[in-house]
Specification:
- This protein is α+β, with helices and mostly antiparallel strands and about 100 residues long.
- Helices cover about 40% and strands about 30% of the residues.
- A five-stranded mixed beta sheet has the order 1-5-4-3-2.
Length: about 100
């Protein structure tokens, strides 16, 4: 399955992470390419509506929201997770980007 990054801000976010974390992010994206819809816990989890999260564990807990678009997965938004619960503003950001993508 093809995996696309929606915009430059997500690329910049990934590049801003610690080197070992970047490697884990790239590995998890490869898992998404390989398994697509079949990727589940502990690497992926449904968050809201058609939005899923890639879960990268380590010294930096990273979450990257994504959605499926026909035959590809589109990476929407990423953040470093600092609390147990996903901040609502992070989910809202991903929902906004998804609406812009689908034109809803």
């Amino acid at each position: 399955m093809e995996v696309r990054i929606l915009d430059e801000s997500l690329e910049e976010f990934i590049q801003s992470l610690e080197k070992p974390t970047i490697a884990k992010v790239l590995h998890t994206i490869e898992l998404l390419e390989t398994f697509g819809h079949r990727l589940t816990m502990p690497h992926s989890k449904k968050v809201a509506g058609g939005i899923f999260e890639l879960r990268i564990r380590g010294s930096q807990e990273v979450r990257i929201f994504y959605a499926f678009d026909k035959t590809s997965a589109v990476l929407l938004h990423g953040f470093v997770k600092k609390s147990q619960k996903i901040p609502l503003k992070e989910i809202q950001m991903a929902v906004q980007k998804l609406k812009g993508l689908t034109g809803i």
